[in-house]
Amino acid sequence: MFVRDGFKNSTPVLPSDAIIGLRRFIDDNVDALTHAASLLAGAKGRRIVTIILEGLQNSIQPSARTMRALQELLSILSLENVHDEMSDECGFFAAIDPCDPAVADICLLTDGLRTAMQEALAQKSAGQHHLVMT
Fold first, then answer.
1. For the residues 40-65, what does the mean pLDDT come to?
2. How confident is residue 99, by pLDDT bands cut at 50, 70 and 90?
3. Coil, strand, or helix at residue 62?
4. Separation in Å, CA 6 to CA 3, 66, 90
5. How is 68-130 classified by DSSP, letter by letter?
6. Helix or strand (DSSP H, E) at 12
7. Residue 111 pLDDT
8. Alpha carbon distance 31, 29 (integer Å)
9. Residues 125-130: contacts with CB within 8 Å, 24+ apart?
């Protein structure tokens, strides 16, 4: 059986105890995440944060949809698509003043989200190996 741990080509399904830290990070930073996602992706970014909030609050174990939304939010915060001049994210990124304090906040949020996701995956791999391939 091929198991692929990572954020790109597979969607991990986490046991409920592995998402506690992830849920805490999202809850503690919801306003900042919403603001950052909005700055970098507009309405799409806000929608992604809403999907994550609903998915983490309304279930014991996050669905594949919630996990995909977390991966998408990390991609937005990591500026993965700003190089593509045809992407909306490129336009939103270009409109941000590099001196804006939100830039430092985005960096901290990116690191925090990545760490929370990695810790959740590490806890998952210490237990069961369930993946939903996308």
1. 89
2. very high
3. coil
4. 10, 15, 25
5. HHHHHHHHHHTTTTTT-TTSHHHHHHHTS-TTSHHHHHHHHHHHHHHHHHHHHHHHHHHS---
6. strand 10-12
7. 97
8. 6
9. 125/5, 127/15, 127/17, 127/18, 128/15, 129/3, 130/12, 130/13, 130/15
Query: 5-9, 42-46, 81-85, 101-105: which range is least confident on average?
Result: 5-9
* Paired residues of 11 in beta bridges: 132
Strand partners, 10: 133
Query: What's the farthest any 2 CA atoms get from each other in the chain?
Result: 48
Helix-helix angle 20-28:101-126, to 10 degrees: 170
Among 1-5, 37-41, 78-82, the least confident range: 1-5
Report the distance separating Cα 117 and Cα 80, nearest Å.
17
Phi then psi for residue 60, to 5 deg, are -75, -40
> In terms of C-beta density within 10 A (0-12 exposed, 13-18 middle, 19 or more buried), how is residue 124 classed?
buried
Residue type, 10: S
Whether the predicted pLDDT of 6 surpasses 90: no
